[in-house]
Amino acid sequence: MSIVVKNLQFTYSANSPYETRALKDVNLTINEGDFLGIVGHTGSGKSTFIQHLNGLIRVQEGEIEVFDIKLTNAKKPKPDLRKLRSHVGMVFQYPEYQLFEETVYKDVAFGPKNLGLSQEEINDRVKEAIELVGLDYEKYKDRAPFELSGGQKRRVAIAGIIAMKPKVLILDEPTAGLDPSGKEQILSLIKNLKEKCSPTIIVISHDIDEITRFANRLVVFNDGKVAFDEPMKELFKHQQELVEMGLDIPLAIKIANELKAKGIKLGENIVTMSDLLREIVIAYNKKNGTNIDVSKIRKSVFNFDFSNSNQEEVFKDE
Ligand SMILES: Nc1ncnc2c1ncn2[C@@H]1O[C@H](COP(=O)(O)OP(=O)(O)OP(=O)(O)O)[C@@H](O)[C@H]1O
Ligand SMILES: [Mg+2]
Fold first, then answer.
1. In total, how many domains does the chain have?
2. Ligand with smallest separation from the Cα of 43
3. Is residue 44 located within the same domain as residue 71?
4. 108-128: b (≥16 Cβ within 10 Å) or e
5. Which tens digit of pLDDT belongs to each residue from 54-107?
């Protein structure tokens, strides 16, 4: 287990006219290797929750254990926040606003420097991180961050976090405000990071179609509480409740619902577009006595429809 959260409560501006109870008795265990998606309506407490995990917000009530570090409201013993932040890397929404050094190299080196590493180790980590986010090290290391495109800046900001080699990487709305190709780059970067550096990843997203492409577990926040905590494919058994909470459901499920309402018999377990296609082809074969190969159709359909997307992700169930 990486992170255990017990009975966490949090109130902003307590005892003032602006008092807001942002978290109400949150209990959650995040396991090593989880690829966790967090969704929930605006103001449901997602950002407040994750900012507790690296000590940016102090625990008021309840407790959190991150690896061997305990976070409570007790004044003593003080938690080792430096160690905590080296374990838990946090990429905020619009992280590019936090770039401040004059070169890409210096910005990415900032975190590792604070960890007190040797110059050689810092160099290695900076180079590795810049390349991991898909930028050419020699070409970009001396560039000023403000000269880069929005998507590139964001990747530099993410490089600065992964250069600290966190065991858990948390990203708050990592694709917000990017164009479709910038989004795709960040999504495939996150998937790549999962494989190459952070064994545990937590992503907050408003885009349900995006998050179902990679998360293997989904947690839904509603009004400061954890409403659901389910394996990705199981969550949408609660689709009625999700809609009532003001959440979107995946496009594939919406299309499947429409088709079923028109009398087309489709199997269960449809969440992604790939699932939908599979069930449509199966239904077609059954009705017409044909034997069309799903995988061949899938290839041509997704090549056409999602030319930018990461094919392996779309087909991850196969
Ligand atoms: N710094 C703050 N001071 C006072 N209230 C705050 C502060 N930050 C958040 N809140 C309130 O706490 C509640 C939870 O906010 P939070 O930012 O955690 O929600 P969220 O789920 O991340 O929302 P979003 O999807 O809009 O980012 C909201 O009611 C919000 O208005
Ligand atoms: Mg938020």
1. 2
2. 1
3. yes
4. bbbbbeebebeeeebeebbbb
5. 999 999 999 999 999 999 999 888 999 999 999 999 999 999 888 989 999 999
